[in-house]
Amino acid sequence: MHLKKILSFAVAALFALSLGACSSAKGPAEQALKSAEDALNAGKADAMKYIPEKVKSAEDALKTAKDAFAKGDYPAATAAAADVTAKVKDFGAAVAAKKTELTKAWEGQSQLLPNMIASIKSRVDVLTKSRKLPANLDKEKFEGAKNGLAEIEKAWGEASSAFKEGGLADALAKAKSVKAKAVEIMTTLGMQVPEAAKG
Amino acid sequence: MPDEPVQGKGKEGMDSTQWHEVKKGDTLSKIAEKYYGDPGLYTTIFEANRDRLKDPNLIRIGQKLRIP
After folding, report:
1. Which residue range forms the structural domain that includes residue A65?
2. How far away is chain B from the Cα of A111, in angstroms, using its nearest Cα?
3. What is the CATH number of domain B19-66?
4. Is any Cβ of chain A less than 8 angstroms from the Cβ of B41?
5. What is the pLDDT of residue A199?
6. CA-CA distance, A85 to A33, in Å (whole number)?
7. C-alpha A71: how far from its chain's center?
8. Distance from CA of B1 to the nearest CA of A (A)
9. Mean pLDDT, to the nearest integer, of A65-84?
10. d(CA A33, CA A51)
């Protein structure tokens, strides 16, 4: 009988201890989650423009942390929250690296595309004065090329504005479509396409 | 001596200047007809190559001409 009492007491004590342990882990886990979420929200906007895949990875880690917390697994929640914080800390360096990469790519495009547009414009100007179009170029194709030139001049202006406003990824996407169209026009007009614009 | 370009190349292939390498039988009129469809526009090519041409009737085989 005496032993039974001791055992009951021990079980009760262990239960109380585990409850205490749980509640003592809950607070830090909650704090870690909040810090991780705040850090992610603060760094997310700029990072989304340059490293969306890393932002997604951090968001997934945050979800893992929240799920663990909801299940009462506070140590796992704390660990996952720390993972989120570590991922967010890497955002700065990753964004800087991506900006450097995009800026370098932009510099290449900003040398190539104005040259291509100028060459096309020059050829269109001469062909406009021509009494007859060259072989393999009919009036319809020439009109298409002229319209295409107006389109790429406008699109290049937009790409340049996007770059000046800091929209590197947007500027490069626009530049890519300008390049594709410029190659198409040059081919239509029977012009030589620069090596850097091929492929 | 003006630069002797390689067609379509330049600094890292960025140059989009258009070139024609003179072949046997070429005249500026024939070149103008080929690129513009109009032999009368030979003067456009001559003017674009004044740094390397003194006379529109004197071009030499292998010479590289800018085609505006």
Report:
1. 22-96
2. 7
3. 3.10.350
4. yes
5. 74
6. 9
7. 33
8. 24
9. 97
10. 22
